[in-house]
Amino acid sequence: MITYKEAKTILHSMTKGDSLLRHARTVELVMRAYAAKLGENEEQWGITGLLHDADYEAYPDQHPNVIVNQLRERGEEEIAYAISAHYTKWGVPCNSLLDKALLACDEITGFVVACAQVRPTRLQGLEAKSVVKKLGQKSFAASVDREEVRLGAEMFGVDMKEHISFIIEVLQQHQQELQLQPQEAQA
């Protein structure tokens, strides 16, 4: 299996922007936490989250094919397939629990981070009901596909508020690393 160190090297070879690197890390953390909760392979799920958008910055017109092909060349079919299926409009069906987890965690994790970034207390005190309310505001984080968020939770079989609460809890445990601690604590 691909090592975490190899995965980070691949990510950093194609991704330089802080925002996308943070997104990769947040999705990795949430995927690892779900793997632990569900008794799945934490390393595999974490690496899937880490690499799901690895080629997006360098090859936006070819995303996710560049990273999928690299992973397939390494014999990482499960990770490659999950990444190829992490957006329903690509037409690749989500078959495994890994596929469904990535779909369920990608867009909403980015959205939770966006919600945290506009609050002085960041993740501290952020509640699922506030995130759900923001999902209803189409102008907020407009690039987040609300239908993908809904479909992801539905396919993964999780209640939206419970799913968001889980993501918030996971990210709170890493708020300093993610630079999402309350503003006064950042000074």
UniProtKB/TrEMBL annotation:
Keyword Acetylation: no
Keywords per UniProt: Hydrolase
Name of the featured protein: Metal-dependent phosphohydrolase
Alphabetical list of Pfam families matching this protein: HD (PF01966)
Superkingdom as given in the UniProt entry: Bacteria
GO molecular function: hydrolase activity
Species, as recorded: Pontibacter korlensis
Domain HD, first and last residues per copy: 21-99
